[in-house]
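User: For a benchmark we're assembling, each entry needs the component sequences followed by a predicted structure for the full assembly. Here are entry 17's components. Please fill in the structure.
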Amino acid sequence: MKAEVKFGGLGGQGIITMGFILANAAAIYDGKECVFTQDYSAEARGGASTSEVIIADEKIDYPHVSKADYLVVMSMSAYKDYVHKLKDDGVIIVDSDLVHLPDEKRKVYGIPATKIAEKLGNPIVANIVMLGFFAGVTGIIEPEALLKGIKDRVPKRFWELNERAFREGLEYAEKNL
Amino acid sequence: MSQMTDMRKTEEEWLRTERLPHVWCPGCGIGIVLNAFLRAVIRRNIPKEKMVVVSGIGCTGRTAGYVNVDSFHTTHGRAIPFAVGVKFARPDLNVVVFSGDGDLFAIGGNHFVNAARRNHDLLIIAVNNFTYGMTGGQHGPTTPTGAYTTTTPYGNPDRPFNIPHLAISLGAPYVARWTTYHVNQLQNSIYKALNMKGFRVIEIISQCPTVYGRRNSMRSPMSMMEYFQKNSVINNKASYEEMELTYKGKIVVGEFRNVGGIPSYEERYEEIIRRAQE
Amino acid sequence: MTEKHLKEGYYFWSGDVAAAEGAIAAGCRFYAGYPITPSSEVAETMALRLPQVGGKFIEMEDEIGSIAAIIGASWTGERSMTATSGPGISLMNENIGLAVMTEVPLVIVNAMRGAPSTGLPTLIGQGDLMQAKYGSHGSYEIITLYPNNIQEAFDLMFDAFNLAERYRVPVMYLLDGLLAHMYEKVYVPPREEWEKKIIRRKRAREGQLPYQPDEDMVPPMPLIGEGYNIHATGLTHDERGYPDLTPQAQEELVRRLNEKILKHERDIWKVEEYLTEDADIIVVSFGGESRAVKAGVNLARKEGIKAGMLRLITIWPFPWEYITKYSADYIVAELNYGQMYHLVREYSDNDVYQLNKMGGEIHTPEDVLKRIREVSS
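Assistant: Structure for entry 17:
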């Protein structure tokens, strides 16, 4: 098994955190080989933010995403910047309120992650809703492993909020697939 | 045996006598400073293995080569950060930086400023002879305005450091200035500073007849000493303006600052270790 | 107060964090540094972790002060380290010479970025390979190590400190803009196990002078505060450490400083030989770039081209015997205009080709494959 995931969005949406949580969880709690990188230069280009995760059973040589299996984007600009990195049969996962792709031929899975997060009381957990949705759509990581990864990254007093956000995303995937 | 002979014998134990004669010119003031330093150290009964002397480069920088303790002749300007490493790693040692004005305040100025700000527990013996002696008498950061050196052949256009003012502004808890004429005061000052904590600075105005004096109508060691004798004014409460040194002007000496109770960097870091291991 | 040591287990670390944790596990207890991208996370990790194990961290006023401080600390017996990037190494070079001349064990991390000058602060470069050895003035040898994954960034720190102590020499520990910020899984063994790997500093025999070498050409190091009355100087010196400014003393000292490393180069060398046994073409590579090279070699093998990879983990002393032992053609893949290429050419009897990129990113596996194809046809 080998999956290449590219995350993109705007600064402040937790794009780098999203990648780190997935990668850390896959490596530590799902027993996989994993590489996580973030693009520092993109941050300087007016708020764009991106990170990359490669998950595999075997050791990973080339550490960058060359052809992504999954493109997870939370802004139109990120979609435009990175869609060329997606495989022809790759899958696109979006915040459906922020990214509209009527002409895209590939599979697009959308979730109103920011809206759900706002309903939960804090838009900051939109990325965690996205991660739950990602786990449900892709099945490349055990949801419980990913939840452990979230708890590694988030202060204890926010665990409950983040777990609810994660489960909302996961259930949304299960209901709508 | 007389007291004098006893002191001399003890001093010899503190010197690498096999390395004598030293490199300093006849009439140089650095030997006077070293002598005062050794006498103060001996009076303080500091065990030799607890004393470390660090020097940079230059005439005064050669001091480390003559003291028979753990002693380091480092790179130009870097005596202070080297000493910071020794002291921070082994806070139980007495670490003395013994170096010249060019080494400490020009090339090493940034280290002086920041080490003083952090209040490392170091004694700085700063020998100021107004010039770069070892390289042949060029102008340096302490050369008085108007003085003649090999690189200021028309007189020095720039302004010297006011070292006590600099050190006080950075919060150094002990700051004094003497000349090589004031041997007793100097020895007592070092004796006192050895028993204190924090960044202690003693500036010693010293004669360099060989390359500085001779270009400034003080060709002999005696004429420079006479200048120090006639122009020095002891004033512990001198203003910063009065501490300024001018060409052939007055030299205000004294113990300008002496305050206790300011924790050193090394003491503050003990608290950091405590917090980290809570 | 109780010391907090790493527990056995898996960690997800960046190269900077792994290098810092590896250093602490390898016994480092003194760090002085100045922040610079992409090495700053080494400093941050040291600031957090060193006091937890009773060590000392200090942020100095610049890189010159940083290396001076670790030289001083190393004389007290502490395993001492600093970390920086190219511009900082340029500032440290004078005192690297002092450490070489006075034979002080140190580890200096250089997370290489795009250069010259300020260059590409966040991105990978491999332009400091020659600087690692030739940065300071004079003729001397130091040891340079360069991992290519995050587990190795942790493990190789034991080699770095052990070699520094064993040969009384600064060890340059290279990372790059990719490895410094890239995260991978690291297994940390139980503390008893890793502590067994630590080789302690050789102590002097009764009456042995501070620069009197043993048969292995390395003098045991006396420590500050133990009554040796050490004298150390950057001037050419005799076995007592006293200045001896004669051609004879210079000849004896500088020869020994070089030969104490070169005579032991086979003990120091570490390389990874990947599919080299039957290879017609061997791609020489190191650090972050070698990740692309290995993938490219695998692509070539799929096409039936007998390609292999020689990854230098020891950069200096240059592991030349691994070049002379093969009768293959070489491609030297490096993120500079051509540095190690000249070394490989010096030792290879066959053709040596280049694959260069000026930095900012590593080659793609397809770039490597393309070059292998060109060379093999």
